[in-house]
């Protein structure tokens, strides 16, 4: 590396770090404002003022108000995956892991106004819940199909079915609550639709969520 | 009934009939225009001009462009129910009737641009497919629960699950096609989630759709 290349690399790393700091400041300000006033009430201008950045800077980082929530949701999804790992305590059964993930995710989304807004009102047409959940559940699903735990003949159709089903349950949950065991029932139905027997689905969907 | 009451009743019936004729003319014009130019391209003004009614008259009958499609969709849903009756040929098994309905409805909605638009782009927030399908499938579902054909512990959660699942499949279908047996796979998953065994679900979801 020549001296000039080295100094350009340092500069670009520094620029990158500054960009990241700015982005973090925007996200932080947005979250704080939205949790205080509700997502709808907060404008991009409110966010840029609170983060002390210009309008143009905001749009360098995000296409819209909804997109500011994206990094927050990614982080929450990561926390859910980590919790699934802890709760299932190293057990690798994809049925148990998927059911646990469905339960934890449904509770999290239903109880977090920011996440809920992103799923239902961000204006993204039929935003796929699965996209927001990252690749972990898809890997459990594929593993379960590969090792015969699940009976799936069309992976894409099955995935869309489950994805939509979770949104359907959340939508009904939003409209008027759902009863204490809605997340467990939903996890049970997911397992059934993957070909797990009714008896086993009922049992797995009700495993304790405490840490083992 | 006095003579005056009788004449008022005649008048009100006549008014009612005239209102119905006007409404039918608006719906007819809207359908013709939308099938020719696509739903998005057609404005309320296009419809009122083609139907030869005033702007105000339109809004006496319908709240929005999307709502004009409602009577059309009700009629299509009726035709689907009638076809389910014919195809199942008097067999009353709720599993067979629901699976048949799912298959016929998915094909109908996926292939009808007007219906498809209504489900996905009419602006109605997460428009419930079930609402559009009327009460027939709900009755099959309740009957199946009552006579033990289905294993359902929370009817509302299960209904929302299936409702969302169908929308999820249709959304994926819209994005990029789905393979020849997507409707059959979906019907199979619906039956599984209702507690029908994988073997039976696979068989029932592939019963011939020809008239018996």
How many domains of chain A, as an integer? 2
| CATH architecture descriptor name of the largest domain in chain A | Orthogonal Bundle
Distance between the termini of chain A: 52 Å
How is the biggest beta sheet of chain A arranged? none
Radius of gyration of chain A: 21 Å
Percent helix among the residues of chain A? Answer: over 70%
Q: What oligomeric arrangement do these chains adopt?
A: homodimer
- Uncertain residue segments of chain A: none
Counting DSSP H or I runs of 4 or more residues, the number of helices of chain A is 11
Silhouette of chain A: globular
Query: What structural class is derived from the secondary structure elements of chain A?
Result: mainly alpha
Annotated CATH homologous superfamily of the largest domain in chain A: Tetracycline Repressor, domain 2
Task: List its traits.
homodimer, 212 residues, mainly alpha, Arc Repressor Mutant, subunit A, Tetracycline Repressor, domain 2, 2 domains, 11 helices
